[in-house]
Write a structure and sequence with these properties.
The complex is a heterodimer of chains A (about 180) and B (about 550).
Chain A lengths: L2 H28 L2 H17 L10 H19 L9 H16 L2 H14 L2 H11 L5 H8 L3 H28 L1
Helix pairs in contact in A: 1-2, 1-3, 1-4, 2-3, 3-4, 5-8, 7-8
Chain B lengths: L2 H16 L5 H13 L1 H25 L2 H9 L1 H5 L6 H15 L5 H6 L2 H6 L25 E11 L16 E13 L4 E14 L2 E12 L8 E3 L3 E5 L3 E6 L5 E7 L2 E7 L2 E2 L5 E3 L4 E5 L2 E5 L19 E9 L21 E2 L14 E4 L4 E5 L15 E6 L10 E8 L10 E9 L2 E9 L5 E10 L3 E11 L4 E8 L2 E8 L4 E5 L14 E7 L8 E4 L1 E10 L18
Parallel strand pairs in B: 4-5
Antiparallel strand pairs in B: 1-2, 2-3, 3-4, 4-7, 5-6, 6-9, 7-8, 8-12, 9-10, 9-11, 12-13, 14-29, 15-18, 16-17, 17-28, 18-27, 19-24, 19-29, 20-21, 20-27, 21-22, 22-23, 24-25, 25-26
Helix pairs in contact in B: 1-2, 1-3, 2-3, 3-6, 4-6
Classes of the chains: A mainly alpha (about 180), B alpha+beta (about 550).
Chain lengths: ~180, ~550
């Protein structure tokens, strides 16, 4: 395998391993799925362009988030602001937290999430499915379920909290093994 | 409130953030929380990551096999080499991204064959040599270009004219205003100036339907071609501008290098009428001819934008003192513990011993106690004993013109004798400063807010307002924003806030050696009082150009100049 092919393979492997986290980081800064998607793609391209500069001894996710932060920051500046965003300073220090999350096995986290989702009541699973697929907007879901939007939001919050606690329990259990 | 309740409140905020139902005030609150605590940041990241993974999981479950099939058999993918480890890439990424955006095949490109098509594919493909010059767009799954930069841009509201994830051949982008920079697969970069319409043809070709653009073409993209309704411009490794007016009339200007311009008639380039243009030449392409314009300042020549210059980056540098540990190298308290503040306002405190009996650090409580002394900056009395503690702004990159702010939290304010005062200052010397805070009133246990200039030792432009009571918790902020000073007093007990501004003190403008800090004084009494200071934060906003900077190194940037 020639060097460039090896580099590509290495890059693809690293990006594959961290893509959900990188996406999560970008999404947490822009809070819009479509924007996050565009920025994720754009960032991935820049990462490849700059992959020569990446020091393999260092954390890939920290490096990738650093590049992403720059892309996000450019993007936010390029559009009129109808809403507030986190400051760049916070965007930067959140990278450390992502680096720590990386230490935990991401696969384990995802498995924990899947397991916890299965433990939800069927009705909660259904609500999660409808809302997170974005097949319908919350007000439409609310009408369909004969409830208020607020009540749907409350349910989603409760479900997320349940999942979060379930995941935390299951991860601390893993650690204890 | 116990820790559990705090955690609940925090998670409520994070959840509101996830669900995009957070208001500005709560967002600020969340941000403060995150800035202050590492644990909070970890929890935030874990929670948001769960939210983000949920989107992936749920959508993955709903991905349709039809779309999967499309990916597996996609032209783009099948042409890309896949290594032995690629199926997993297809597996997870495809599931995730497909689930998310099942209708947008283009997202598959980057997401699925992603790096195969988007990156690998850039390298080997050379465009076919064509004889027909009315380009036929070949439908393809592959994106042929990427948006790499944008400024103040507004797209046509109709979805089809927006770039989105779809940048495939055949896509026409309609930019209403602003600038966007597009990189083509082969490496050419265009800056499109709104209003403009641009059709993507291939990784090395485009058609300007209307409007103006500039193109920079590196050697590897030599041959990059832009069509217009009347003509065709083939680039030979250069930089040029092209514009199309409402009648389809085309003008081309070469900034550097060489291009070949040809008219198009009946769908074919009329090569016999082609003209080679060199640096600084301008030509119009009309009907069947390319005509060189004699005057390079031609009237039809629009103002071409050759570079998107980013707006300046405002960088916030801050120092926060929370008084939880002694800090060496700073002013010392009665027991020799460094309090964190490193300097005194020049001209003050000269007579105070190194271990200052008026200061007491309480690391357990996270407070600094400051006992006032008899001094008066108005008339400069007792300045040698004056307690005006602070930090030099130059420590935070201040060079004279930047905006800055200092905030301090003062719980449970004590009563001072008449004209007792405390607050914040900014200045270069004891007789060159602006200070503001609270000044006690003849009525026992009450204060007014004040902000005052001192240029030469005497107070001027005194502004007093409002009434506060002993025992209230306050947060004071003295700031210079766009050059103007103001004092913000938040009463945390009464949940009220006042902002004071006075005539602008020009005598501090451009001053490089400024100090920011806190002070306490009882000018007309020898009865000392002790103030408790909970936290001090000093911030400077420096402005720099974003050009050419890359964030592979942590760079402290902030947009919080407001």
């Amino acid at each position: 395998m020639d060097t460039i092919t090896e580099r590509k393979a290495e890059f693809a492997a690293r990006l594959r391993q961290h893509q959900s986290q990188l996406f999560g980081y970008i999404y947490s800064l822009v809070r819009d799925l479509d924007d996050a998607d565009d920025l994720f793609q754009q960032t991935s391209l820049v990462l490849w362009d700059k992959f020569d500069q990446f020091d393999p001894c260092k954390s890939f996710i920290a490096w990738a988030c650093g590049v992403a932060r720059f892309e996000v920051s450019n993007f936010l500046r390029s559009r009129s602001r109808h809403r507030l965003y986190f400051t760049d300073e916070l965007g930067m220090i959140l990278i450390d937290a992502h680096e720590e999350l990386e230490q935990e096995e991401l696969e384990v986290r995802r498995n924990a999430l899947t397991t916890c989702m299965k433990k939800l009541r069927p009705r909660d699973q259904e609500l999660l499915d409808v809302c997170y697929s974005r097949a319908a907007r919350i007000p439409e879901v609310a009408r369909g379920w004969g409830r208020s939007s607020q009540s749907i939001h409350n349910s989603l919050r409760r479900i997320r909290r349940t999942l979060f606690e379930c995941m935390s329990r299951s991860l601390s259990h893993e650690e204890g093994l | 409130m116990n820790e559990d309740n705090l955690n609940q409140d925090f998670l409520d905020l994070v959840d509101a953030y996830c669900s995009e139902r957070i208001d500005d005030a709560s967002l600020h609150h969340l941000e403060e929380w995150l800035l202050a605590s590492e644990d909070a940041r970890k929890a935030f990241v874990a929670y948001f990551q769960m939210h983000s993974d949920l989107l992936f999981e749920v959508r993955a479950g709903r991905a349709t096999s039809a779309v999967l099939d499309q990916v597996m058999d996609g032209v783009a993918c099948s042409s890309a080499k896949r290594g032995a480890s690629e199926p997993r890439l297809l597996g997870w990424m495809a599931r995730a991204h497909l689930g998310m955006w099942p209708t947008v095949a283009a997202s598959l490109l980057l997401a699925v064959c992603g790096f195969a098509v988007g990156l690998w594919g850039r390298l080997p493909i050379r465009p076919e040599t064509k004889t027909v010059d009315s380009p036929v767009t070949r439908p393809s799954l592959a994106n042929v270009a990427w948006l790499v930069n944008a400024q103040d841009c507004e797209w046509a509201t109709d979805q089809s004219g927006m770039p989105g994830r779809d940048m495939r051949a055949g896509k026409t982008l309609r930019l209403r205003r602003g600038l966007v920079e597009i990189e083509f697969e082969r490496g050419a970069r265009l800056i499109l100036q709104g209003p403009a319409g641009l059709e993507l043809i291939s990784g090395n070709e485009a058609r300007l339907v209307y409007g103006a653009l500039t193109a920079r073409v590196p050697e590897r993209a030599r041959g990059f071609t832009v069509y217009s309704p009347r003509g065709k411009v083939v680039d030979l490794g250069t930089e040029f501008g092209l514009s199309v007016d409402e009648n389809g009339g085309t003008a081309v200007r070469v900034f550097e290098g060489t291009v070949v311009a040809s008219p198009i008639a009946g769908g074919k380039a009329v090569l016999a009428s082609s003209l080679t243009l060199h640096e600084d030449q301008v030509a119009r392409i009309d009907d069947r001819a390319v005509a060189l314009e004699q005057n390079s300042e031609a009237e039809h020549d629009p103002l071409y934008v050759r570079e998107i210059v980013p707006p300046p980056i405002i960088t916030a540098r801050s120092r926060t003192l929370n008084f939880t540990t002694a800090i060496s190298g700073s002013l010392k308290d009665i027991e020799g513990r460094g309090v964190g503040l490193t300097h005194r306002l020049p001209g003050t405190g000269g007579g105070i011993p190194p271990w200052d009996a008026n200061l007491r650090l309480d690391p357990k409580a996270g407070t600094l106690e400051l006992t006032t002394t008899r001094s008066d900056i108005n008339t400069q009395l007792g300045m040698g004993n004056g307690e005006y503690l602070g930090v030099p702004l130059s420590d935070l990159g201040f060079t004279g013109d930047e905006d800055f702010a200092i905030s301090a939290t003062l719980p449970n304010i004590p009563s001072l004798k008449t004209v007792g005062q405390f607050g914040l200052y900014a200045g270069s010397r004891s007789d060159q400063n602006i200070r503001g805070g609270l000044i006690s009133q003849p009525v026992l246990d009450s204060y007014m807010l004040f902000l005052v200039n001192n240029d030469g030792g005497r107070d001027s432009d005194l502004y007093e307002v409002g009434l506060m009571s002993t025992g209230d918790d306050l947060r004071l902020t003295l700031r210079r924003l766009r050059g103007a000073y103001s004092l913000i007093v938040e009463n945390l007990t009464k949940h009220s806030s006042s902002t004071l501004a006075i005539a602008h003190p020009r005598f501090l403008d451009g001053e490089r050696d400024l100090y920011l800090g806190v002070f306490g004084a009882n000018p007309r009494s020898d009865v000392p009082k002790t103030l408790t200071i909970k936290e001090i934060e000093v911030k400077v906003w420096t402005v720099s150009s974003a050009k050419g900077t890359v964030a592979t190194e942590p760079r402290r940037t902030g947009s919080a100049a407001g």
